[in-house]
Amino acid sequence: MEAVKDILEYSDPYFKVFQVPRWRAKLYKFIAIDLWGNVPGNIQRGISAYYASIYNKSFTKSIIKPYVRFYYKDSNYLSKFQPPEGKSKFESFQDFFIRRFKEIPKNASDWVWPCEGLLCDISRISEQKVSSVKGDKRNIWTIFGRTKEQIPQDYVFTNIFLHNKNYHRIHSPVEGTISRIQHIPGDLVILRPWIYKQNPSLPAFRNERYNIDIIDKDGRTWFLSIVGGPAVGTIKLPKGIRLGQKVDKLAEISIFYLGSTCCIAAPIGPKYHRLNSFVEVGSVY
């Protein structure tokens, strides 16, 4: 198994990590954790659902093209996708947000990235620090709803932050069998990793999430935690995603309606990507 120091080789030269001054990051964290984070969960979800509903309005479709031009250098980026639910055109910004690939990317590798976004955290499970959540000390395996004994300490933890611009469907990183599906209710605190500085995965310890375990063809378990954030109307699992179901590599396993992070505990480390690099669906894990 490759050491983490040997696998942090690749970064996307066109992708810039958003930097904020330390004082501003502290202010954002105070707002996210100490203010918003202490709002009762039912109120958080109500506000988030209302906010998300705005993006279902037809007038928001006018945002899509300028939004894509602003965030993507590839002028043909949108041509790779189609509207959801059999629609012939994008009728709202939410349609763009939950866009579908016209053709799922192909890759001969046995292990691929399940989503598109910023690789904001990476380490061995054994190296992850304890986090304090509302005064409760939590270890990295609690993100996945597991105990220390259930996730090998030499597994590699990664966290991919999905910005609003990113494709928001999560796919299976391997061919295998779903061995567990777990829903953990929780908060919907802000996910943006740059406001947490030394602990970019902090929201994953406390936010609402679905945990999905997949056993690959070699009998190894891949642990995925699909984490919601503010403005998430829902995290939806497609039909057919159930316990004991066999899934192909890159089969769709979940979809977000605004705001998300995907955490992985895997038996191998990323081959080409390093901290703060950009990963794409279907690229070599």
Short précis:
The chain is of the alpha+beta class. The chain has one domain. It contains six helices and 15 strands.
Note the run of SSEs as H and E: HHHHEHEEEEEEEHEEEEEEE
Q: Largest sheet, order of strands side by side?
A: 12-8-9-10-14-6-3-15
N/C terminus separation: 14 Å
Number of strands: 15
Strand content: 15-25%
Number of domains: 1
Mean pLDDT, all residues: 84
Low-confidence region ranges: 1-14
Report the sheet with the most strands, covering strand number, pairing sense and barrel closure. 8 strands, antiparallel
The helix content, as a percent range, equals: 10-25%
- The helix count comes to 6
Q: What radius of gyration results from the CA coordinates?
A: 18 Å
* Helix/strand structural class: alpha+beta
Which term fits the overall shape?
globular
Q: What would your notes on this structure say?
A:
The chain is α+β, with helices and mostly antiparallel strands and 285 residues long. It is globular. It has six helices and 15 strands. The chain has one domain. Helix content is 18%, strand content 25%.
SSE inventory with pairings:
Blueprint: H1 4-7, H2 22-35, H3 41-54, H4 64-71, E1 81-82, H5 93-97, E2 100-101, E3 117-124, E4 131-133, E5 136-138, E6 156-162, E7 169-171, E8 176-184, H6 202-206, E9 209-216, E10 221-228, E11 235-236, E12 246-247, E13 252-256, E14 260-266, E15 278-279
